[in-house]
Amino acid sequence: MQKQRRPYRSHKVPACDRCRRFKRRCTGGTPEQPCVLCSLQEVPCIISSSPKLSSSPRHRAKHDQRRAQTTRIAPSTSVDRIPSPAPADGEVIQEHIGRDYHGSPGQDQSKVELSMFASPVISEDIQILERYMSSKSSSLSTGERSGSSDTPMVYLRAPRRREGLSMAANPGKRQKEIVMQVLQPYTDELVRLYFEEIHPAFPLLDEQLFMELYKAGDKLSPVLVCYFFSVSLILWHHSPVLRQFPKPDIYFIWNLAVEALQQDFLAPALSTMYSVLLDMGGRPIYSMLVNTINNGRAVTLAQTLGLNRDPTNWRRPKSEKSLRIRLWWAVVIHDRWSSFAHGISPTITKSRYDVPIPMLEDIITDSNQSDTHIKAAKSFIHLCTLTEILGEVLPLVYDLNLNPKETWKQIRRLETDLDEWEDRLPSYLRRDNNENPRVSGSSSLQLSYLAVRLLLNRISLHVSNIPNTASTRSNAKSEHKKATTLSTDIDRLQTTRYHLSQLRKSAQEIVNYVCSLTKAQLQEFWLPYTAHHLILTVIILLRCTIESTDKTIISTCKTSLQHLWTKLQTAAEDGWDLATMCISQCKESVSKVLDNDVRGTNIVGGELQQLHLQRGGAGDGRLLPIQGEGRSPAMQSVGGGELLPDILPFSNPDISFDNQWDLGSLYGLGWMGMDGFGAYEAGNQGGF
C-alpha cells in the first residue's frame, strides 16, 4: 500500500486538484508520484496552487505584481496565438519564441488552448464584430494580414485537450527518460552530428534556440527529444568517437518516439509539428503506411496553425517568420515527395497557400556560418523549387479524366521548367561537380531531379498510348475511314516507341548517377524517398528487359540492371539503408531476371503488318486480339517489341515480390487492378 504523504485534512500540504474537486481524501501526490486515487484512475496528479503563495495577502500581492510586470514585458508566451494588436518586430523576447517552438506545452499548465486558423469566409465578419467587442473578453484574435491578401488572419482559441479523456500530463516524458538513459553518454556527440550533417541540408529547427534549451536541462519537448535522437542515430558510424561503441538498438528508440508522438497528438501544439516532420524524414524507414498517415496529420495541423499563409508582413520577429516559412516548406516537401513515392494523391494544392520559397536569410540566421552551410542552405532552396515543379507534375498522375491535348501542353511546359531548373543550379550542386568536400544534400537533390524526369517520361508514355476518341467511336465502314484509323494507330505506335526509349534512357541515367556515387556521398543527407526512386528504376529496367525481343535492348537493360544491383549491394554493405530497402523489395525478381536467359515470350513480330491484316478482316474497325494471347498485336509489340505501356507502375513501389513469378508480368501489380494483360485490354485508359 502506498505510504501516506499528506496528513489528514492538512492545510499546509494541499490536496491535488482532482481530489479537491470531488471532495475526496487525498494522500498527497505529485505528477511523478500521484496520490492513491489518481494512481488508480491513471490520471495526472496536479496541484495548481502553492500554499506559500496563498497563505499571506502580502505574498499574494507581490506574486500578482510580478505576473503583471512579466505580462508587460512579453505579451504572450504562446507562439500559436497571434495577439491583437500584434507586436512589432523585436517586441517578443527571443527565448519565449524558442520555448514555444521547441519547448513542451505540457511544462506550462496554463497552455490549455490552441489557436486555430479560422475560415477566411468569416474573417471580415469577425473583424467587424471585434470592433464592438474589443472591451470584452473575446475567444478570437486578429490583426495579421497575409502578404498576398487583404483578408485579416483570424485565430479562434480552442481547448488542446479532449474533455474527460485520460492522457499524459507531459506527453513523451517516460519515453524521453528511457531514451536518455540509453544514450546519455553520447547525446552531445549526436547533437553535434545532427547540426553538422542533417540540419544544413534540411533546416527544420532553429539551431541557436534549440541549443539554448538543450543546455538548460528539461526545457525541450520530450517528444521532440525522442525524435531528435532517433533521427541522429543514423549518423552513429560517421563519428570517430561513437563508432568505437556498439550502436544502440535504433528500432527500440524509434518505437519509443512513435509511442510518444501518439500521445502528443492527443493535445497537439506547434512542437508537435517538429516531431512529426522528423518522423517522416527519419531513416531507416520502418512503416510506409504510418508515414503516409502522419503526412496527412502534419498537413492538417500545419493548416490549422496557419502555417500555409505568408507571414512576411506580419508584425512578428524575423526569426519567428523565418521559422514558419521553413516549417511550411518542410510540410510541402514531405507531402509531394511522399505522394510520388507512395501513390497517394498530394493533400496540398498550389492555390491553397501563399508562403514564399525560403530565402537565404530565412535559413542562415547566424552571420558566422561557414561556406559549406551556406551552400547546403542553397541546396534546400533548390529542393523547394524542384518540389514546386513536382507539385505541377503530380496532377497529371492522379487526374482521372486526362485531356490528351491539354496534357501534352503541360508536359512540354514542365520539361522546359526542368531544363531551366537544372540550368539555374550553381556549379557546386551539379552532377559533374568534383568539389571536395561536397555539399550535403546535393546528391539527394540530383537523384530527386532525375526521378522527376523519369516520372514525366512515364506520364508521356501513358498519354501517348491513349487512343484518339474520335476514331474509336466511329462506326463507319468505309475504306477511307478504316485507312484513316489505321494511320492514326500507326502514328500512335511510333510515338509510343519514342517515349519508351526516353523512359529507358531516363532509367539508365539514374543507374549511371547512382553507380558514380562515392562512399562519402552516400553518407550525406538523403531524403527517405530516395529508396522508392531506386525501386522504381529497378522495376522499369526489369520490365524493359523481360518485355523486349530486341537483343540490343535486352543486353543494354540487363547490363544496366546488373551494374545498379552491384552498386546497391556494395552500398548496403557500407551501411546505406536506402539501398538495403531497395534490395529487400526487389531481390528475388532481379535475381530471376539476371540468372536466366530472358526472352520476350509475349511478343509478336511484324506488328504493323498484323495490325493491317486484323483491320482488313474486321468490319467494325476494332483491334482484334490474337488468339491465345488475349491482347491486340499493337499492344503486344509496341515500339518494335518493347515494354507494354500501361502495365508498368509509375510509382508506389511498395510491391510485395512474392515467390510467384510470371515472365510476362511482375507479380505484385494488383494495386493497379491489373492482374495481367487482359485487364489492360479491357481498361486502356485506366490508372497508371
UniProtKB/TrEMBL annotation:
Molecular function in Gene Ontology: DNA binding; DNA-binding transcription factor activity, RNA polymerase II-specific; zinc ion binding
PROSITE patterns cross-referenced by the UniProt entry: ZN2_CY6_FUNGAL_1, ZN2_CY6_FUNGAL_2
UniProt-listed InterPro entries: Carb_Metab_Trans_Reg (IPR050797), XnlR_reg_dom (IPR007219), Zn2-C6_fun-type_DNA-bd_sf (IPR036864), Zn2Cys6_DnaBD (IPR001138)
UniProt domain Zn(2)-C6 fungal-type: residue ranges: 15-47
Residue stretches in coiled coil: none
Keyword terms: DNA-binding, Metal-binding, Nucleus, Transcription, Transcription regulation
Keyword Hydrolase carried by entry: no
An individual GO BP term: DNA-templated transcription
Region ranges (Disordered): 50-87
Ranges of compositional bias, category Polar residues: 68-79
Gene Ontology CC: nucleus
SUPFAM superfamilies cross-referenced by the UniProt entry: Zn2/Cys6 DNA-binding domain (SSF57701)
Classification via Pfam families: Fungal_trans, Zn_clus
This protein's name: Fungal-specific transcription factor domain-containing protein
